[in-house]
């Protein structure tokens, strides 16, 4: 997690790349071909899967041949207490999660140079990769994806966890094309009656206006509802609603709730109506997760019985 001059803990920008000072993940050396845990298990490193602001991810195979994703974090990048606390918090929160639409946490171990977080492998990439190759996603598919995402977020919020970094690049496909929410690097557990957090964090395009308000306003569960609205807009219209080259312009647009819908799009009015509800400036005016699923866009439109890997290549012919 890199600190920008504005002191925002900003996760890896997606779709539009902004210049960053230094990626902590660049400190991560390629792990050895075999990583041995303290209790003697051996994991064989496989191909590189991707990197975020903080970690690099590799395939790893256990002795029985089962394949996992290993998120590797260089110890050199976790020298200060704050970063250490954050990583431990990510591990603690992720470890306690068990839901079909959340990336499964398998194990955690270390060697001299890296900390390894072993996760369920999601070989079909993320929703962001799907959008990149497709440009737009059809309404029935978005309905299907949103239902799974909302199921996972309902589970998180029920356990008082706010994810705070929901974005297309953090929602992965498993081999069966079910969605799995990952990356708990910015997640936080709320302790009632103190249901607010004050740290400015997130990914520029997805940050809710109340997060930008910082100490004055505080933020809570509704930031995840906002991010669901950004994801829905991005899937249907091909880019996030507040997109701009300059991050400060993105923030200004978010604060003024300045977004438009392309006039040449065939997206339904019901979808537009739901997005407008999700992107309400006032967090209290946003719908609850149950309200979202009750919206006419969900209850009246076609809903695919399942999604196949064909969706990765193009709009399936029956949609
Ligand atoms: P960071 O905390 O540094 O942002 P991420 O959790 O986003 O790291 O992971 C970095 C990259 O690794 C992702 O963008 C993705 O390409 C890949 N990745 C992460 N988790 C998995 C997984 N479970 N299966 C496959 N690839 C993954």
UniProtKB/TrEMBL annotation:
Q: Which keywords appear in this protein's UniProt record, sorted alphabetically?
A: ATP-binding, Kinase, Nucleotide-binding, Repeat, Serine/threonine-protein kinase, Transferase
- Answer yes or no on keyword ATP-binding: yes
Q: Which GO terms describe its molecular function?
A: ATP binding; protein serine/threonine kinase activity
Which positions bind ATP?
75
Residue ranges annotated for the Protein kinase domain, each copy included: 43-298
Name the Gene Ontology biological process terms.
Answer: filamentous growth; mitotic spindle organization
Q: Which GO terms describe its cellular component?
A: cytoplasm; kinetochore; nucleus; spindle pole; spindle pole body
Family according to the record: Belongs to the protein kinase superfamily. Ser/Thr protein kinase family. CDC5/Polo subfamily.
Tell me what this protein is called: Serine/threonine-protein kinase
Lineage of origin: Eukaryota, Fungi, Dikarya, Ascomycota, Saccharomycotina
Q: Could you say which residues of the full protein are shown?
A: 21 to 339 of 657
């Amino acid at each position: 997690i890199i600190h920008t001059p504005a002191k925002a803990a900003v996760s890896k920008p997606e779709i539009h790349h902004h210049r960053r000072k230094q990626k902590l993940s660049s400190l991560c050396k390629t792990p050895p071909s075999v990583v041995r845990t303290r209790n003697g298990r051996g994991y064989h490193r496989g191909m590189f899967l991707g990197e975020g602001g903080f970690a690099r991810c590799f395939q790893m195979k256990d002795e029985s041949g089962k394949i996992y994703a290993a998120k590797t974090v260089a110890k050199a990048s976790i020298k200060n207490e704050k970063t250490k606390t954050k990583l431990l918090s990510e591990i603690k929160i992720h470890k306690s999660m068990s839901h079909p639409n959340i990336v499964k946490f398998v194990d955690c171990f270390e060697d001299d140079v890296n900390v390894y977080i072993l996760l369920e492998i999601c070989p079909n990439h993320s929703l962001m990769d799907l959008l990149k190759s497709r440009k737009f996603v059809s309404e029935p598919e978005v309905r299907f994806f949103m239902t799974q995402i909302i199921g996972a977020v309902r589970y998180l919020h029920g356990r008082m966890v706010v994810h705070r970094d929901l974005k297309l690049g953090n929602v992965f496909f498993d081999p069966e094309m079910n969605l799995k929410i990952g990356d708990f690097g910015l997640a936080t557990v709320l302790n009632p009656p103190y249901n607010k957090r004050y740290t400015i964090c997130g990914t520029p395009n997805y940050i809710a206006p109340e997060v930008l308000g910082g100490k004055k306003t505080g933020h809570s569960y509704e930031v995840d509802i906002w991010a669901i609205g950004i994801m829905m807009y991005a899937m249907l219209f091909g880019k996030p609603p507040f997109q701009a080259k300059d991050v400060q312009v993105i923030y200004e647009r978010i604060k003024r709730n300045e977004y438009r819908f392309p006039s040449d799009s065939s997206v339904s009015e019901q979808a537009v109506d739901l997005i407008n509800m999700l992107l309400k400036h006032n967090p209290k005016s946003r719908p609850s997760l149950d309200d979202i699923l009750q919206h006419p866009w969900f209850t009246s439109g076609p809903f695919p019985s399942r999604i196949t890997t064909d969706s990765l290549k193009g709009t399936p012919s029956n949609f």
